[in-house]
Design a protein that fits this description.
The protein is an alpha+beta fold. It has three domains: about 55 residues, Winged helix-like DNA-binding domain superfamily/Winged helix DNA-binding domain (Arc Repressor Mutant, subunit A, Orthogonal Bundle); about 200 residues, BirA Bifunctional Protein, domain 2 (2-Layer Sandwich), CATH 3.30.930; about 50 residues, SH3 type barrels, CATH 2.30.30. It is built from nine helices and 14 strands. The strands form three sheets. The chain has a seven-stranded mixed beta sheet, sandwiched between helices. Strands 13-12-11-10-14 form a five-stranded antiparallel beta sheet. Strand 1 and strand 2 form a beta hairpin. Helix 6 packs antiparallel against helix 8. The N and C termini lie far apart (about 45 Å).
Length: about 325
């Protein structure tokens, strides 16, 4: 089916006869493969008598050879489908793959975001990406890392024409108040010594409609009006991550504190911070040198950090 998908990816009509010749099969076999494509990948294929078959919308498939010469020298692993790229990265580590390496997949069947939320992952439309790194000296080396990754993601999207984007503490990228990307970091090993971290990034790229998302969202295609080459985006993301991670290793999050605050969309805003059953109202002052959120609460500055925290604008219904 991958060969058939490659023939159809440009969104142009192809006759059943031409597809059969290219595949070396009968027109009946072509029809069967088309049905399997729709069923397996959730793709919509137009079938018009006298014209043939075409995808409802063109796609650009991820290509190993276009991703292997990245700035960080990280080995790419390009998957057709996986439960989640974070989980796939940990499995590769357990199977003996040596970090650093990254995983991208055309789709996820159990993609997830922070706090166990589902990450909607349609086939060949978005970026589902995980970079696995070995960390020496314990998890303290990771202070502010998700915020730094947010800067890398934001700049990678800007490089392909997305304007007006910014960050929401701790790990969301928004455009026009709508979510376009998210970050999920996961650890394995000894957090006090040698451990591994997976940097998971999900970016809405060419998705134009999706009823399963339960919050305001947008995509790079919706913002720019053009089909985005996802290979170019992954390469741009790798270049940005290589830069930001190197500086973070040398100087910690404080090297980016001012840059991050300038990109924070809710700087100076009145917000509500949820921590389990507790709700805290305050005004955003910024972040500290380790990436913790600084809030003015009842006239007193307080700092908050942790993976189970959720932030929203106070007047956000």
């Amino acid at each position: 089916m991958q060969t058939l998908l490659a023939l159809l990816q440009d969104g142009q009509f192809q006759s059943g006869e031409a597809l059969g010749r290219a595949l070396g099969v009968s027109r009946a076999a072509v029809w069967k493969q088309l049905q399997e494509l729709e069923s397996a990948y959730g793709l919509r294929i137009h079938k018009v008598r006298g014209r043939g078959y075409c995808l409802e919308s063109p796609i650009i498939l991820l290509k190993h050879d276009q991703l292997q010469n990245n700035a960080g020298g990280w080995l790419p692993n390009v998957l057709e489908s996986t439960d989640s790229t974070n989980a796939a990265a940990f499995r590769l580590l357990d199977a003996g793959s040596r970090p650093p390496f990254f995983v991208v997949s055309e789709r996820q069947t159990a993609g997830r975001g922070r706090r166990g939320r589902k990450w909607v992952s349609p086939f060949a439309e978005n970026i589902y990406y995980s970079l696995l790194l070995r960390v020496e000296g314990g998890a303290v080396q990771l202070d502010g890392l998700s915020l730094v990754v947010g800067l890398a993601v934001l700049n990678a999207m800007r490089g392909l024409g997305v304007v007006g984007g910014g960050l929401k503490w701790p790990n969301d990228v928004l455009v026009g108040g709508r979510k376009i990307a998210g970050i999920l970091l996961e650890l394995s090993g000894d957090p006090a010594d040698v451990c591994h971290v997976v940097i998971g990034v999900g970016i809405n790229v060419n998705m134009r409609s999706e009823g399963a998302i339960d919050q305001p969202w947008t995509s790079m295609r919706l913002e720019t009006g053009v089909l985005v080459n996802r290979n170019d985006l992954v390469n741009g993301l790798n270049a940005q991550l290589d830069h930001y991670l190197r500086v973070h290793r040398q100087g910690g999050f404080q090297s980016f504190q001012q840059e991050w605050e300038l990109a924070h969309l809710w700087q100076g805003e009145d917000v509500c911070l949820s921590a389990g059953a507790q709700s805290i109202e305050g005004r955003v002052l910024g972040v500290d040198s380790r990436g913790a959120l600084r809030l003015l609460v009842d006239g007193v500055e307080r700092q908050y950090s942790g993976g189970e925290l959720s932030l929203r604008l106070r007047d956000d219904s």
